[in-house]
């Protein structure tokens, strides 16, 4: 019999809500003007920010500081690493994740349009081409893949770099033959940089690298910024080095026509700049309208450079020439050399140094280390705005005064116009506490205390505090006490948002504090080797300047418990009979609360006990340690019931689930630095459930007094609520899921190792272009479904063919029994069943699924391709499958005589179907042209215009707008 944990406290816990994260350092920020919103930039708004927050993409309204959207899928737990917006269709976003997947999102519906999976490691760069139909992606696996968004397939993989890709940009030859003759796409080049300090130019028509340059003189290349007109770019390296490159458009246009003379390159080095800070630059962005460049590193500043105009550059060079001539003329006067006679062209600026072209404009200081930035549109031409995402979980919008761009001794002023910082902490949350009714949550970090509504996940209060290590609600849920690293206790009034009192409680860090079960006192444990008891007392305090008095709560020290080592954790038993204290000597000492006499000493852990909790019937105590073990002890005699290896890293917190009517209150949660939460049964010593979702060390955890949910806080800046559901837990199913995940991970690892040593062309190294596919568990399962459908379909075809032949001799013969699969699908035909199997496979995974098929299954597939071509069903899908299989198995098909007749059959049927569809398409187009002509005639327009009228219209056009509002006509 399958064992089920079906009682109230043994139901399954699932992730419910995530909050507290504004932006994470893993991804970049993208600014959106949100013009269709009522708070658009044209109406005084500040637009929206699209940021990565662990495994989600968050949409923030910058003016209201509100979260207006969340993008995530149920099957995704990978961290967002890069966000890219299409310039052609602003509603389309490409989002890269650290598991190598790319999802194309529609911002209007917040849904995934396409999912690509071709990289083996995290995505580092994404860029749309100029037409918006192709996407280039770079990854830590050193590969660049170009994707077709229309066909939803990967076109090819470009190999050549030796380290992770740091930047990608498309370059287009404007008057290429394809563009001149109305081709579907222009002749494009791709610019890529990597941490291997190389910049490469790829010809996408031949899929080969045509130029390679060393970008930096010292170390890696971290970023690249392309000028808005495509005339040049800047690369960033170590020590604040910025190298300027010009792009030779003439060579770019002639590269594919004739052999360019040796020595002429697309990229030409123009000089080197150095930014204000000497740390490595991480981002370079050219302003979309102005001659400005923003550069940032990992420090707390964004440096803005200005590009001098041609006139200003000539004046600057003239001044330098004049000073140089004056200086050299006076110096060389004795030698008789007249340097002033030197011939220089005052109009030549082609050889100007990079430092003369790019000059500092302003240095914007930010509130945290800059992770990413983006230019934001201004409300007017009087200022420019820049959006900055910092590594301390906040967004800042700066306004910089737009000067006249002329020489000035003073840098333009700037100010922080807007900020999004209230919905999250700046530093890691080290402690959490729930109110008695579970409606409020207190979280404390280094410098701030926040009160949250657990139902709406909104921040109610933000208060300044010290470096918090412990927090607790006092009875009544109106006052919160915080223990700090400085050894002080800070008492806060939530309603008034004020600090009531600061008590110097200990000489060193207060690692733990807890309110007594009767709600009358508080105990604190500190690194000064003492535990102190504090009594709650209300005192009357005189109001300054008046004779009136007001009541104020204070803490009165009553008793002190001295121990031999630093106290790391302290805990009351629910019946308040015992007090457990864990110390730095790896032991837990249990004292009687009333007399403070030692009752038990628990030995066994190899490293200090970091957390502990006592069950609600005061019979068990569970301890967790830095030795990755959890131990369950009995409080009657201090015997160890069980010690088991629970996590892969130090276990930072452990909590029992409260008792209820049917449970015994002996289930507990443990959270660790390994980013995992585990749910255990302390009686049977079994793991009930494993909860995964955090992307950093879990520092704190709190269990609701009702037992309905669990709150955890992590190093990833997120606060997660794990809600109890009505779904029952079956331990055997949980173990089977873990085994399946382990087998799947092993399979994926083996597939990745095979891909690293052998590619689809049969070469391991030296191939610049390769297939863009990647085998995953989903593609393997899809391939197995195709093979199964082909097998069942061929059997049914043979059965029905035999029945048709037998029916000629015996018309009254009984029909054969078909496979139950066809009967369950309304007795569909075999070709329809196989076609539906192909249509259910995502287009992006189809080619990888077809690679699973062996050559022995190709004849069966071609049989169904001929049937689909004859019936005219899904011709685009049929052609795509046919061409891919011909390309994959070309050598075997050519050498097989049996395939010749089958190929001829497919060719003839497909050709006749395509010709028929071509005629239908031409007929429909002609009909649409007739309808269009009639519409124009009704509107009073004609296809022919008198020459004099046309010339009069051209003469009037410069002074007035050419376009008129469209007329809407109802077509019956």
UniProtKB/TrEMBL annotation:
Keywords on record: Nucleus, Repeat, WD repeat
An example molecular function term from Gene Ontology annotations: snoRNA binding
Record GO biological process: maturation of SSU-rRNA
Region (Disordered) residue spans: 317-341
Extent of the WD repeats: 89-115, 116-149, 184-212, 422-462, 503-537, 602-643, 691-723
Compositional bias (Basic residues): 317-326
Subcellular location: Nucleus, Nucleolus
Gene3D superfamilies noted in UniProt: YVTN repeat-like/Quinoprotein amine dehydrogenase
CDD domains, per database record: WD40 (cd00200)
GO CC annotation, single: small-subunit processome
Membrane-spanning ranges: none
Coiled-coil residue windows: none
InterPro entries given in the database record: SSU_processome_Utp12, TBC1_cilium_biogenesis, WD40/YVTN_repeat-like_dom_sf, WD40_PAC1, WD40_repeat_CS, WD40_repeat_dom_sf, WD40_rpt
Residue ranges constituting the Small-subunit processome Utp12 domain according to the UniProt record: 831-931
Primary residence: nucleus
Record family assignment: Belongs to the WD repeat WDR3/UTP12 family.
Cross-referenced PANTHER family: WD REPEAT CONTAINING PROTEIN 3 WDR3, WD REPEAT-CONTAINING PROTEIN 3
Protein name: Small-subunit processome Utp12 domain-containing protein
Organism encoding this protein: Cladophialophora psammophila CBS 110553
Organism classification: Eukaryota, Fungi, Dikarya, Ascomycota, Pezizomycotina
């Amino acid at each position: 019999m399958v064992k089920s944990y079906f009682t109230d406290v043994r139901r399954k816990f699932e992730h419910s809500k995530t909050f507290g994260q504004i932006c994470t350092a893993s991804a970049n920020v993208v600014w959106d003007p949100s013009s269709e919103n009522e708070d658009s930039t044209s109406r005084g708004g500040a637009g929206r920010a699209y940021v990565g927050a662990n495994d989600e993409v968050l949409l923030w309204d910058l003016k209201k500081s509100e979260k207006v959207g969340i993008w995530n899928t149920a099957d995704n737990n990978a961290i967002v690493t890069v966000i890219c917006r299409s310039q052609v269709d602003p509603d389309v976003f490409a989002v890269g994740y650290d598991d190598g997947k790319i999802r194309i999102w529609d911002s209007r519906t917040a849904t995934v349009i396409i999912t690509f999976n071709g990289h083996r490691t995290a995505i580092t760069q994404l860029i749309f081409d100029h037409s918006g139909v192709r996407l280039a992606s770079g990854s830590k696996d050193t590969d660049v893949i170009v994707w077709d968004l229309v066909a939803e397939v990967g076109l090819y993989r470009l190999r050549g770099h030796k380290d992770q890709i740091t930047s990608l940009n498309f370059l287009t030859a404007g008057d290429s033959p394809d563009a001149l003759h109305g081709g579907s796409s222009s002749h494009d080049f791709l610019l890529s940089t990597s941490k291997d300090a190389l910049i490469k130019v790829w010809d996408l028509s031949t899929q080969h690298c045509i130029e390679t340059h060393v970008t930096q003189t010292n170390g890696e290349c971290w970023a690249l910024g392309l000028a808005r007109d495509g005339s040049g770019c800047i690369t960033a390296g170590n020590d604040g080095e910025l190298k300027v490159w010009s792009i030779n458009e003439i060579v770019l246009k002639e590269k594919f026509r004739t052999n360019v003379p040796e020595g002429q390159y697309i990229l030409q080095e123009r000089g080197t700049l150095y930014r204000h800070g000497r740390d490595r630059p991480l981002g370079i962005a050219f302003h979309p309208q102005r001659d400005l460049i923003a550069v940032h590193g990992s420090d707390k500043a964004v440096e803005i450079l200005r590009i001098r105009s041609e006139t200003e550059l000539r004046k600057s060079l003239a001044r330098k020439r004049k000073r140089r001539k004056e200086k050299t003329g006076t110096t060389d006067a004795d030698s008789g050399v007249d340097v002033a006679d030197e011939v220089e062209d005052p109009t030549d600026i082609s050889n100007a140094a990079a430092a003369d072209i790019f000059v500092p404009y302003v240095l914007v200081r930010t509130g945290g280390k800059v992770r990413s930035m983006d230019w934001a549109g201004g409300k007017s031409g009087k200022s420019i705005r820049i959006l900055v995402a910092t590594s301390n979980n906040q967004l800042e919008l700066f306004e910089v005064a737009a000067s006249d761009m002329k020489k000035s001794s003073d840098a333009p002023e700037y100010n922080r116009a807007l900020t999004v910082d209230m919905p999250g902490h700046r530093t890691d949350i080290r402690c959490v506490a729930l109110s008695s009714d579970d409606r409020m949550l207190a979280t404390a970090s280094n410098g701030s205390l926040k009160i949250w509504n657990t139902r709406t996940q909104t921040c109610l209060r933000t208060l300044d505090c010290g470096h918090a290590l412990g927090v607790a609600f006092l009875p009544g849920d109106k006052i919160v006490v915080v223990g700090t690293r400085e050894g002080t206790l800070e008492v806060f009034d939530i309603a008034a948002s004020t600090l009531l009192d600061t008590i110097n409680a200990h000489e060193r860090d207060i690692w733990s504090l807890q309110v007594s079960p009767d709600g009358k006192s508080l105990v604190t444990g500190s690194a000064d080797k003492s535990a102190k008891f504090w009594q709650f007392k209300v005192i009357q305090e005189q109001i300054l300047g008046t004779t009136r008095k007001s009541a104020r709560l204070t803490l009165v020290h009553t008793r002190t418990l001295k121990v031999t080592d630093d106290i790391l954790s302290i805990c009351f038993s629910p019946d308040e009979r015992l007090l457990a204290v864990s110390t730095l000597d790896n032991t837990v000492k249990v004292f009687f609360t009333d007399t403070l006499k030692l009752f038990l000493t628990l030995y066994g852990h190899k490293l200090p006990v970091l957390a502990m909790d006592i069950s609600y019937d005061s019979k068990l105590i569970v301890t967790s340690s830095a030795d990755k073990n959890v131990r369950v002890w009995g409080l009657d005699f201090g015997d160890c019931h069980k010690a088991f290896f629970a996590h892969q890293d130090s276990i930072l917190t452990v909590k029992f689930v409260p008792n209820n009517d049917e449970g015994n209150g002996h289930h507990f949660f443990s959270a660790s630095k390994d980013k995992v939460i585990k749910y255990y049964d302390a009686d049977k010593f079994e793991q009930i459930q494993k909860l995964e979702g955090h992307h950093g060390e879990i520092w704190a955890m709190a269990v609701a007094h009702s037992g309905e949910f669990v709150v955890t806080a992590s190093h990833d800046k997120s606060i997660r609520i794990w809600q109890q559901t009505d779904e029952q837990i079956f331990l055997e199913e949980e173990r089977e899921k873990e085994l399946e995940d382990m087998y799947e991970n092993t399979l994926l690892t083996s597939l990745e190792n095979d891909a690293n040593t052998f590619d689809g062309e049969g070469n391991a190294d030296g191939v610049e272009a390769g297939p863009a596919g990647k085998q995953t568990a989903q593609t393997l399962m899809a391939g197995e479904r195709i093979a199964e459908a082909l097998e069942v379909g061929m059997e049914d075809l043979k059965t029905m063919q035999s029945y048709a032949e037998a029916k000629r001799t015996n018309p009254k013969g009984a029909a054969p029994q078909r496979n139950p699969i066809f009967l369950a699908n309304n007795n569909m035909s075999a070709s329809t069943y196989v076609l539906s199997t192909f249509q259910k496979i995502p287009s992006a995974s189809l080619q990888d699924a077809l690679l699973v098929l062996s050559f022995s299954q190709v004849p069966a597939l071609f049989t169904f391709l001929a049937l689909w071509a004859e019936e005219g069903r899904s011709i685009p899908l049929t052609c795509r499958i046919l061409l891919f299989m011909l390309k994959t198995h070309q050598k075997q098909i050519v050498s097989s005589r049996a395939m010749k007749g089958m190929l001829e059959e497919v060719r003839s049927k497909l050709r006749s179907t395509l010709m028929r569809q071509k005629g239908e398409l031409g007929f429909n187009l002609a009909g649409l042209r007739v309808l269009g002509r009639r519409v124009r005639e009704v509107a009073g327009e004609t296809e022919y215009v008198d020459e004099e009228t046309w010339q009069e219209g051209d003469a009037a056009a410069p002074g007035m707008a050419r376009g008129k509002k469209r007329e809407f006509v109802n077509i019956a």
